[in-house]
Q: What sequence folds into this?
């Protein structure tokens, strides 16, 4: 994928940041990360230094640093570029994190579709071991040993969520855990664990190479520093770009050649669909945040087609643990298809919006909480895209209204069916014979 503008990582000397960090005490390293204002670059935006501080204070003889390289958000590919071009910065950032929290082992959870990169990454790790920058007594520091291995993901979108990722690493079904406790206290193999995004770890190396004040000097007060963005869709120049936080969406579109867009999905399929009258918004945590994906839709795109495509994805990728996510995504998909056919009544549309809002609140993890976003954005900002349902009520429409009024009842009924099935099966052994 093409790199379209100047990326800071290209100018950072290998291991300059690590050597600078190892000259400090672990507490000072954490304080420097906090001072920089670095926030997680995977989408959630939790302050990186605070996460490290919690993990450092947690009790446990064995601590782990995990690099989340399960880049599964549709439209996101900036982590792939970082791993391909600057893997040393990522491994260096993991090593700095390990030194700061007192960890001895690291894991890169690599997206299944990135298997072709594994050989190159393994070679990079071995070179670091040979250079004394990984393994025992790193950089000659007697009391610091740390090593990294690569674990392949299995293609599940939900495993981008840190606790689901940890469940997968432990050989279990990839689904989110109840929190608290958080991974910084009880994570991988019940030990304190930090999970950081690929880009976050690369910025850690850059921060220690150039100083925390350098990083904090860019961006906004609430969102310091820089952000890599994956720009795709109906633009003249798709690719990976770097901008300081606080850059307006219109500026980004101008750089990529997408000024005439009908809409922009900031944050990918789970993000916000921004209309042209809001292109002056700023890309930052206090305005419109993104984990890195910006998908541009041109004037000729049907946004209901877009919403249907995204909703199909989430209906397939839901782990099924939460009833409202497992069934809600299916109901939203059914509703979008009715809308495309001009068969969705105003009442049914209102019920669908209510369902989407409930999913945002009641779902356990980010998948269910964000999967209704694009659908709700279409209804809010692009109502003219929805074919109007005839006003007069004939018998068929009355039937449709009855279906609409029973929307939530149908979800409850499906849930009861699941529960009854589980109950009936509970007294049956694997061969189908009652115990």
A:
């Amino acid at each position: 994928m093409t790199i379209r503008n100047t990326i800071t990582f290209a100018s950072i000397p290998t291991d300059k940041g690590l050597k600078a960090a190892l000259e400090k005490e672990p507490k000072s390293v954490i304080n420097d990360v906090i001072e920089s204002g670095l926030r997680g670059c995977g989408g959630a935006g939790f302050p990186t230094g605070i996460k490290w501080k919690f993990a450092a204070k947690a009790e446990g003889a064995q601590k782990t640093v995990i690099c989340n390289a399960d880049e599964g958000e549709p439209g996101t590919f900036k982590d792939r570029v970082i791993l391909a071009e600057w893997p040393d910065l990522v491994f260096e950032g993991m090593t700095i994190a390990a030194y700061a929290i007192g960890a001895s082992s690291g894991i890169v959870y690599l997206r299944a579709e990135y298997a072709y990169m594994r050989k190159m990454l393994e070679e990079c790790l071995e070179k670091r071991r040979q250079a004394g920058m990984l393994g025992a007594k790193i950089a000659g520091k007697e009391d610091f040993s740390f090593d990294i291995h690569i674990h392949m993901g299995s293609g599940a979108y939900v495993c981008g969520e840190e606790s689901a990722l940890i469940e997968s690493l432990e050989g279990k079904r990839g689904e989110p855990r109840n929190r608290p406790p958080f991974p910084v206290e009880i994570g991988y193999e019940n030990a304190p664990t930090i999970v950081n995004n690929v880009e976050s770890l690369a910025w850690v190396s850059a921060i220690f190479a150039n100083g925390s004040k350098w990083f904090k000097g860019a961006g906004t007060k609430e969102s310091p520093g820089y952000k890599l963005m994956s720009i795709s869709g109906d633009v003249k120049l798709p690719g990976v770009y770097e901008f300081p936080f606080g850059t307006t969406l219109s500026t980004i579109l101008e750089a990529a050649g997408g000024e005439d867009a009908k809409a922009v999905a900031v944050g990918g399929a789970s993000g916000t669909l921004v209309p042209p009258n809001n292109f002056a918004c700023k890309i930052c945590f206090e305005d419109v945040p993104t984990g890195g994906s910006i998908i541009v839709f041109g004037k000729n795109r049907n946004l209901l087609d877009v919403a249907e495509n995204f909703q199909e994805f989430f209906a397939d990728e839901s782990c099924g643990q939460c009833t409202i996510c497992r069934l809600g995504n299916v109901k939203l998909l059914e509703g979008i298809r009715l809308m495309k056919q001009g068969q969705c009544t105003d009442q049914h549309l209102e019920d669908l919006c209510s369902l989407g809002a409930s999913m945002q609140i009641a779902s356990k993890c980010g998948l269910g909480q964000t999967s209704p976003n694009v659908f709700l954005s279409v209804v809010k900002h692009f109502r003219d895209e929805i074919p109007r349902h005839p006003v007069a009520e004939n018998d068929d429409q009355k039937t449709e209204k009855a279906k609409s009024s029973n929307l939530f009842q149908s979800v409850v009924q499906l849930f009861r069916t699941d529960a009854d099935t589980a109950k009936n099966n509970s007294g049956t052994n694997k061969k189908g014979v009652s115990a």
